Amino acid sequence: MDHKTEILQGTLDLLILKTIALEPLHGWAIGQRIQQISKDVLQVQQGSLYPALHRLEHRGLVKSDWGPSENNRRAKFYSLTKAGRKQLETERATWERLSTAIAQILETA
Asked: Which of 7, 22, 28, 54 is deepest in the core (most CB within 10 A)?
């Protein structure tokens, strides 16, 4: 039985921003890191990941630079911009308020 969960678009943007906050990563590595940290619960489909990266780049929240990947292939590495760091904090605060409110509703008898 497969317990992997597809990630919603808005949540995916937040997870991408958080994942590249510490270091620039290429697309495949971003997806793998999210899956690894979530202990294989969250799975990012390539068809969702790359459009999200392009959308974030278009919004000025991430920037990309070409560099060699682990297997020495040319890859686009994504990193946060100053605006991306600010957006990450805003979205993180919003997520915490939302998840707390949902938890409170689910805990009521």
From this structure: 7
Give 103's strand partners.
none
Give CA angle at 40 (96, 61), nearest 5°: 50
| DSSP states of 35-71 | HHHTTTSEE--HHHHHHHHHHHHHTTSEEEEEEE-TT
Domains, the chain, with CATH or none = 5-107 (1.10.10.10)
Strand ranges in the chain using DSSP code E only, listed in sequence order: 5-6, 25-26, 42-43, 62-68, 74-80
The 10s digit of each residue's pLDDT in 29-70 is 999 999 999 999 998 888 999 999 999 999 999 999 999 988
φ, ψ for residue 54 (rounded to 5)?
-65, -40
For residue 71, what pLDDT is reported?
87
